[in-house]
């Protein structure tokens, strides 16, 4: 199964594409889509959408694992990130991908075993699980790979339960 992990953001959208075979993960690609600070929001959203459509077309994932919005105290930022997340969901839906959504707590729990884990612990587990030399940068990229791994673990568990 090929999984596209997405950590939504309007300035930086992290993505990670992994392949899951059995209980093993292999990195296909990862990175970040960035938009310039001075850009109008509609233009930023267009860049995010077009970039995701290009990535989906190039790597042909079967499923997208998208991190749910964590609402912080800054409502304006949350709304802007929510718009970017909506564009990511639209790109995935328009491409016919199955979409799974996970909270940051669920992702941390799946990777570290603790939903309150620190960012460095998640990055360490991403590096370890994917057999990388160092943790991916920027942090948004590691978060996207973590979302993809979370779905891989979740889908793997569901498939094992079906076999019972």
Automatic annotation (TrEMBL):
Record text on cofactor binding: Binds 2 Mg(2+) ion per subunit.
User: Single GO molecular-function term?
Assistant: magnesium ion binding
- Record keywords: Cytoplasm included? yes
GO biological process annotations for this chain's record? DNA recombination; DNA repair
Binding, Mg(2+) 2: 67
Tell me the superkingdom of the source.
Bacteria
Instruction: Write out the catalysed reaction.
Output: Endonucleolytic cleavage at a junction such as a reciprocal single-stranded crossover between two homologous DNA duplexes (Holliday junction)
Query: What cofactor does this one take?
Result: Mg(2+)
Active site (record annotation): 7, 67, 140
The record describes its quaternary structure and partners as: Homodimer which binds Holliday junction (HJ) DNA. The HJ becomes 2-fold symmetrical on binding to RuvC with unstacked arms; it has a different conformation from HJ DNA in complex with RuvA. In the full resolvosome a probable DNA-RuvA(4)-RuvB(12)-RuvC(2) complex forms which resolves the HJ.
Quote the HAMAP family the UniProt record gives: RuvC
What PANTHER family does its record include? CROSSOVER JUNCTION ENDODEOXYRIBONUCLEASE RUVC
Give the record's family classification: Belongs to the RuvC family.
Name of the molecule in the record: Crossover junction endodeoxyribonuclease RuvC
Q: Which organism is it from?
A: Zhenpiania hominis
Gene name of the record: ruvC
């Amino acid at each position: 199964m090929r999984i596209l992990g997405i950590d939504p953001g309007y300035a930086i959208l992290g993505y990670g594409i992994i392949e899951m075979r059995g209980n093993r993960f292999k990195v296909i690609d990862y990175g970040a889509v960035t938009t310039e600070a001075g850009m109008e929001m509609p233009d930023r959203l267009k860049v995010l959408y077009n970039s995701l459509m290009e990535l989906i077309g190039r790597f042909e994932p079967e499923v997208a694992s998208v991190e749910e919005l964590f609402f912080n105290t800054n409502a304006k930022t949350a709304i802007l990130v929510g718009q970017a997340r909506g564009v990511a969901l639209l790109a995935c839906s328009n491409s016919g991908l199955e979409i799974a959504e996970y909270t940051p707590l669920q992702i941390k729990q799946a990777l570290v075993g603790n939903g309150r884990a620190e960012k460095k612990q998640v990055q360490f587990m991403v590096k370890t699980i994917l057999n990388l030399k160092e943790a991916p940068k920027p942090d948004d990229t590691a978060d996207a790979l973590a979302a993809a791994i979370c779905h891989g673990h979740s889908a793997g568990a569901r498939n094992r339960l079906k076999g019972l």
